User: What shape does this take?
Amino acid sequence: MAIPHFRYSFASGFDKMTLEDIRKAKAELYDFLGCTAESDFSRKKHSFRDIPQHIYDGINQIFQKYGVQEEDIWVISEIK
Assistant: This one.
């Protein structure tokens, strides 16, 4: 039996924020995720495969600082 893999997207978390907060959160996420280009950030934002727990928790903390709850941040789907 194969081990299931999951795709995590935190793009929907931005829908719950003001434009000003989006800019601030995006800068924090860039630093936290170590992104060096917009394409790298976009890939992680829309399709982070099998995200490590410490990264998941860190992204949650950044969004929660701007009033976004965990259930509003993530879209998780199984990769088949």
Remarks:
- The longest strand covers residues 5-9.
- Helices lie at 19-33, 38-46, 53-65, 70-73.
- The chain has a mean pLDDT of 95.
